[in-house]
Design brief:
There is one protein chain. This protein has helices spanning about 20-30, 50-55, 110-120, 135-145, 160-170, 180-185; strands at about 10-15, 35-40, 65, 75-80, 85-90, 95, 125-130, 150-155, 175. It is an alpha/beta fold and about 190 residues long. The chain has one domain: Rossmann fold. The strands form 2 sheets. It has a 7-stranded parallel beta sheet with strand order 3-4-2-1-7-8-9, with helices on both faces. Helix 3 runs parallel beside helix 4 (about 135-145).
Length: about 190
C-alpha cells in the first residue's frame, strides 16, 4: 500500500457496528494528522447525538458536527448531523440537504462520497466500513472514477458485512483491510 500518497480529505461511511469501528480508526491517528475527516454514520432521525463528545475521547483533533456553508478545515473531524445529507461543494464548504433518504438513509454515504469525489478528486481517500446496506458502493465507484483512493474494511471481520461487500462488488477497492491494518495505514499517511 502506498502511504506516501497525499490526501486533503478522508471521507468515511459506516452503519451497523460503525461507532466502534470509527473509534478504532480515530484512536490511531496522530495529533498532526493533516487531512480533514468527514464521517457519515447511519443514525436515527430527529435525535441529538453525543458522537462528537464520544469521538473526542479517542482523537486529539477537533471533532464537531458539520454546519451548512462551513469551510472545511484540515486536521478536523466532521460528522454528518442526524437526518441531513452532507455534501461537499467544489469550494470545499459543506452543504446540508433534507432531500429524500437514499437507501433508506439520511445522511447517505453515497451522497457524501459522490460530492467529495468531485471536490477533491485524486486528493480524496474514501473508507467504507461495517454496515447492513449497500449505501456507499455507488459513492465509492464515483471516488475511484475520479482518481480518489478507496479502502474497504474486510467484510469477513466487519460487524456487518453487507456494506463493505457491496462496495467491493460494485466499485472494487485499492485496499481491503482489517480494521487494525486500516488504522495503522491511516496513521502512516504522508503528513504533507
Amino acid at each position: 500500500m502506498d502511504t506516501a500518497r497525499r490526501f486533503d480529505a478522508v471521507v468515511l461511511g459506516a452503519s451497523a457496528g460503525g461507532v466502534e469501528a470509527v473509534c478504532t480508526l480515530l484512536g490511531a491517528l496522530p495529533k498532526d494528522f493533516a487531512p480533514a475527516i468527514v464521517i457519515v454514520l447511519h443514525l436515527p432521525p430527529n435525535r441529538t447525538t453525543a458522537l462528537p463528545q464520544l469521538f473526542s475521547r479517542y482523537v486529539s483533533l477537533p471533532v464537531k458536527e458539520a454546519e451548512d456553508k462551513e469551510t472545511i478545515l484540515a486536521g478536523t473531524v466532521y460528522l454528518a448531523p442526524p437526518d441531513y445529507h452532507l455534501l461537499i461543494e467544489p469550494d470545499k464548504r459543506f452543504a446540508l440537504s433534507a432531500d429524500e433518504p437514499l437507501h433508506f438513509s439520511r445522511p447517505s454515504i453515497d451522497v457524501l462520497f459522490e460530492s467529495a469525489a468531485y471536490a477533491y478528486r485524486e486528493r480524496l481517500l474514501a473508507l467504507v466500513l461495517t454496515g447492513a446496506s449497500s449505501d456507499g458502493a455507488e459513492g465509492l465507484q464515483a471516488v475511484r472514477s475520479l482518481q480518489g483512493a478507496a479502502w474497504v474494511q474486510d467484510p469477513a471481520e466487519a460487524s456487518s458485512s453487507a456494506m463493505p461487500g457491496a462496495a467491493i462488488a460494485l466499485a472494487g477497492a485499492d485496499c481491503i483491510l482489517s480494521l487494525k491494518d486500516m488504522a495503522a495505514s491511516l496513521a502512516a499517511l504522508d503528513k504533507g
